[in-house]
Amino acid sequence: MARPTAASRALSQNFLADRATAERFARLAAPRARPVPLLLEVGAGKGALTAPLARRCRELRAYEIDPRLVSVLRGRFSGTPQVRVVGGDFLAAHPPRTPFSVAGNVPFSRTAAVVDWCLRAPALTDATLLTQLEYARKRTGDYGSWTLLTVRTWPRYEWRLLGRVGRHCFRPVPRVDAGVLRVERRETPLLDAAGYRSWLDLVELGFCGAGGSLRASLRRAHPRRRVDAAFRAARLDPGVLVGEVAPERWLRLHAELTR
């Protein structure tokens, strides 16, 4: 079994080494019949995902922070005109102004930063990322609970867990399995701009923890009668924990409390 080097540990590098998994990931990242116009790959590494992704897009910008691997990638894909290898930190890149997708095997230690970069990019259409399995499950409600980030962004983005990748598909082998996380911008947002602003206020209030329960937190800004009616309309138990409320139930709470 390959041992992690000091450099790979510092960069949180776990390279995908299973070809079948790479092909499956590429199909999930670019499921459309027509090629993706522009795709940005996070952490191209040795090119395990770059090759199958390149066959599914018109232009692929492969970002790699490790200078030792940049020259390897450029040599490997010198005859693939749609691939441009970019040496440097993906997080320092300026998002394209035209619609684009993101895909990649994300260093586990930088997952939150990469997801934040994607959510802040105005022209992003979707991101398909190999992340730590626990992160992907938390963000998609797979544990039966929902995080603040997922609920805040739900009217504009759909979060899905598309699969699980065993840790032995990577070299060096990490301590945990990975998950395929897909974040997709909705073609039509569930709320308009004004509705989204009030949504953010409501969700932040609900997650603030004041009063010890979601119901008590919401009663800080809304009359008890309206909060109770909203809970009934959303079919929520009065003692429900804030993390147990699915985004669809939040939408009903929002509709009732902002009527």
From TrEMBL:
Protein's UniProt name: Putative rRNA adenine N-6-methyltransferase
Signal peptide: none
Superkingdom to which the source organism belongs: Bacteria
Residues in Ribosomal RNA adenine methylase transferase N-terminal domain copies: 21-187
Pfam families in the cross-refs: RrnaAD (PF00398)
Assigned keywords, A-Z: Methyltransferase, RNA-binding, S-adenosyl-L-methionine, Transferase
Binding site for S-adenosyl-L-methionine: 14, 16, 43, 64, 89, 105
MF GO annotations: RNA binding; rRNA (adenine-N6,N6-)-dimethyltransferase activity
GO CC, alphabetical: cytosol
Annotated source species: Streptomyces afghaniensis 772
InterPro entries for the chain: KsgA/Erm (IPR001737), rRNA_Ade_diMease-like_C (IPR023165), rRNA_Ade_Mease_Trfase_CS (IPR020596), rRNA_Ade_methylase_Trfase_N (IPR020598), SAM-dependent_MTases_sf (IPR029063)
Family per similarity comment: Belongs to the class I-like SAM-binding methyltransferase superfamily. rRNA adenine N(6)-methyltransferase family.
